[in-house]
Amino acid sequence: MRTDTPKPGKYPLLEAVLTYSGQSIKGLYTLGDVASIFRVSVRAIQQRVKRGELKTRNLPGRAKCLPIDLERYLEASAVTSAIAS
Predict the structure, then answer these.
(1) What is the 3-state composition of the chain as percent helix, strand, coil, each rounded to the nearest 5?
(2) What angle do CA 85, 81, 67 make, to 5 degrees?
(3) Which position among 2, 32, 51, 54 has the lowest Cβ density within 10 Å, counted as fewest Cβ atoms?
């Protein structure tokens, strides 16, 4: 029996954001790429890196993010609402 339901990707949150922004998944992302994905300035991404909210890799050239880094950033960004008692 065949189902037409697409299988979840390796990075479901990142893939959803990329689909929304009309981009496809890549192996490495520059800070400029990340800023483009989230539609913010590069400086905003640099601040998140400095605060430790977003992990980068010290690869040749400049700091880069792997897809798993962006997936973890998105996972950590979930907002939980507090219910007043």
Answers:
(1) 40, 10, 50
(2) 160
(3) 2
Nearest to 66 by CA among 21, 39, 34: 34
Mean pLDDT along residues 20-36: 93
- Give the domains, in start order, of the chain with CATH numbers: 25-76 (1.10.10)
- Residue at 52: amino acid letter: G
Considering only residues 5 and 31, tell me which one the structure prediction assigns the higher pLDDT.
31
DSSP state, 36? H
**What's the N-to-C CA distance of the chain in angstroms?**
49
Q: How confident is the model at residue 79 (pLDDT cuts 50, 70, 90)?
A: confident
